[in-house]
Amino acid sequence: MPRQHHPRKNTIRSKGYFNRLGPGIVTGAADDDPSGIGTYSQAGASAGYGFLWSTIWLLPLAFAVQEACARLALVTGKGLASIIKSRMPRWVLILAVLLVAIANTVNIAADLSVMSAALGLLIPIDQLVGVVLFAVLLAVTEIAIPYHRYAKALRWLTLSLLAYVAVLFVAKVDWAAVATSTMFPQFDFTKASLEMLLALAGTTISPYLFFWQAAEEVEERHEIDGKTVSLKHIQAMRGDVFSGMFTGVFIMFAIMATSAATLHLQGITQIETAAEAAKALEPIAGKYAGLLFLLGILGVGLLSIPVLAGSTAYAIAETFGWRESLELKPLQAKAFYGVIVISMAIALGLNLLHIQPINFLILAAVLNGLTAPILMFIVFWLARDKNLLGRWASPKWSQILLAVATVAMVSLPIMWLFA
Predict the structure, then answer these.
(1) Contact (Cβ atoms closer than 8 angstroms) between residue 364 and residue 35
(2) Is the dihedral of CA 339, 68, 207, 33 positive or negative?
(3) Is there a domain that residue 6 lies in?
(4) pLDDT tens digits, one per residue of 83-134
(5) Phi, psi (degrees; rounded to nearest 5) at 172
(6) Are 44 and 260 contacting, i.e. CB atoms less than 8 angstroms apart?
């Protein structure tokens, strides 16, 4: 029987607002992972304020996808992989989970590389040593700490995103140009512009967030008594998800605007990592801008890498019917936690190949861009299934946004290929 969604979170206002936020805020914040920060920084550096308009369009599309994933989990009490397993052919499940596992592992490798580079700008440390340090720290933390405590830590880590808001106001931003570029899109449809738009879309609508959002909705339900789902619970979930995706997209906006106002204005149009972007900001916007940027990279890395590894673990465990929950002790879910360890180990191994950070970013963006449309179509199909969700199937507005998002994610690679 479905249970109440997020106790004491039926309204998103008044005292205790931060405590009432659920999985949505963590999911939205994890969207701005270190590799994503590198992509947003490059967009601002190369095109100035030219891509700010994309945030207005990407927010409703990203929200629609995450809301559908949360809806599926809230109503059924199952993770996304479990739902696919019960409603679709086996090969669809295997394909979806395989694509997500590969994309997530490459993303982890890229994020570890960027975090280590960022740490190296703060203290003298070898790049590989930093990668190993973060991989071990994050794996042990995710395994050793029960979910109800871990979730609180993740919510507090979302505050690291405020660093990018602070940088936005430290830098000398041309707000008139920001408003014009945001409200009146200009796009030249060149191959380079389409490639950047594809990277921004793939980074914002990331496949690992689909599985994490659904899995954490289920985790939240483990702690409360069973009650029939109601409109109030759907509305609370929707508010939570929107809060998270708005946070993620706003930070994307802040990073692009900051990079445009500093790097682009000074003729720096090509950067390879988020750490490099932070270092380049120092002589332009002051040492505190660079420091804040670096601290933000480390904070969101500590947030997003566990989300990536956890997303893979949930997807694979649900596929094979293993016990899965971050609330369980390691001995109670050996295979589930084993996936987390293996995912971290492979990501660490990729870093041993000495692949340049920029190549990690490109590979991660390509994999996300290829994986997202397939998963989005699956989510669209499931979310409108009244036999599965009954009266809580996605409403028309949600179906339309999901369809537009899916078509856009399919069209962008094709347009880029033939540009």
Answers:
(1) yes
(2) negative
(3) no
(4) 999 888 999 989 889 988 988 888 898 888 888 888 888 888 888 899 999 9
(5) -90, 90
(6) yes
Q: Confirm whether 12 is domain-assigned.
A: no
* Residue 278 contacts residue 171 (beta carbons within 8 Å): no
Count up the domains in the chain and report the number: 1
Domain around 50: 17-418
- Residue 19's pLDDT band, with cuts at 50, 70 and 90, is very low
Looking at the domain assignment, is residue 9 inside a domain?
no
> DSSP labels for 101-159?
HHHHHHHHHHHHHHHHHHHHHHS---HHHHHHHHHHHHHHHHHHS-HHHHHHHHHHHGG
- Determine the Cα–Cα distance for residues 333 and 338; give it in Å rounded to an integer: 8
75-79 mean pLDDT: 87
Place of tokens 């505190």: 288
The secondary structure of the chain in percent helix, strand, coil, rounded to multiples of 5, reads 80, 0, 20
Looking at the domain assignment, is residue 159 inside a domain?
Answer: yes
Residue 65 amino acid letter: V
The CATH number assigned to the domain holding 359 equals 1.20.1740.10
Other CB atoms within 10 A of residue 269 CB = 13
411 C-beta neighbours (distance < 10 Å), count: 13
Give the 3-state secondary structure of residue 222.
Answer: coil
Which residues are bridge partners to 3 per DSSP?
Answer: 226
DSSP string, 192-212: HHHHHHHHHHHHHS-HHHHHH
Average pLDDT across the chain, whole number: 81
User: Average pLDDT, stretch 217-241?
Assistant: 72
- Residue 362, Cβ density class (10 Å: 0-12 exposed, 13-18 middle, ≥19 buried): middle
For 14-54, what is the HEC assignment?
Answer: CCCHHHHCCHHHHHHHHCCCHHHHHHHHHHHHHHCCCCCHH
